[in-house]
Amino acid sequence: MTHLSPIQSSPSGSIQAELLEKLRSKQALIGIVGLGYVGLPLSLTYAEVGYRVLGLDIDQTKADAINQGSSYIQHIDGERVALAQRQQLLEATTDFSRVAESDALILCVPTPLNQYREPDLSYIRDTMAALLPYLRPGQVLSLESTTYPGTTEEELRPLIEQRGFTVGEDIFLVYSPEREDPGNARFNTANIPKVMGGSTAACGVVGVALYEQAISEVVAVSSTRAAEMTKLLENIHRAVNIGLMNELKPLADRMGIDLYEVIRAAATKPFGFVPYYPGPGLGGHCIPIDPFYLTWKAREFGMHTRFIELAGEINSAMPAYVIEKTMDALNDLGKPLKGSKVLVLGIAYKKNVDDMRESPSVEVMELLRAKGAEVHYSDPFFASFPPMRKHTFALRSVDLTQETLAAFDAVVLATDHDAFDYELIASHSQLLIDTRGRLTPGAQIVRA
Question: Is residue 286 annotated as part of the catalytic site, yes or no?
Fold first, then answer.
């Protein structure tokens, strides 16, 4: 199904008509730039409906893995990659000169924040610098990276025009935000509706043709700015509501009320309420980062986004709250945090995935270490602590047994993977700090 915006045009010009025919007949070569948590599943989605796909990445190990028919992302079945390889529909390379072969280029690169919580567009700019020498008439370029409204028009379009191309006639430029939810068994790249906005009306028509064969529903909006704002709204909505729950969490605790029980009860209302849950902080590439893209852009218009900033402050303070609860619980047992052995369960940012981007669990580990605790972790998705830009722990995952659990002064459940044996954990931990509301509070189980 495709929802078209009021701004729409019919195919015009031989370049656009030829590209539309290639896209609609699946004769187009789809170039996916960036083969991470967004780019790899998108590549497979296109290959699985019959397109030839060329994956481009600066990481040779990713290209090698794909060309060998294996997956490097836990929740993506390697057999999907192997099948696409056997059908000769998927190839990966680090050679960006092959951009010229592609009829479509979809950019799936990171958009982090810098140390001042300002947008870092270096990945987009570096990628465009690598693509520009090889662009040609008859290509569609789609940016999927989450960013502030105006990025496509202010950053990408001028670069394309400086090459002498006319956007909407020679090159077709669109913005379509990724909506991946790693580990979600119900929704995937193919069945999550795709929001898309074109730089011109002609670009919008091509953008629909790019996505409608591979995605079940395309929602076309009037501009790239509207599409960029849509993605930010989705994540701001979640960040603010999670922030509300995290603000209520300490209050409910002091009042002797189980907030998780209250949320579950409120969720029985069939209208007007959507359940959100507190936790040890926000993780992933989207919710802790994306709202600040709009906060930054709002300053250009002389406005302050107070709800967004307040939610950010509350959510960022949650790891410290977990440490406070851990210290208090240890004190009740006559033990100081300094010198205590603490095991953190789960270092991924959400359960059942091998993704550590912006994980609050790692922030909890850093704070524990800074307080003098001896910190260890257990996570079925990470046998050893992987290299990270901001965090370094020379650790291997602890196997959970009766003996290992009993050897720790405190166990902090930070990410509630389903693979954990919760009966074992609850029965043999001297002290268990539950940040996810997974277990029933008791003599040695404390909610945080």
Answer: yes
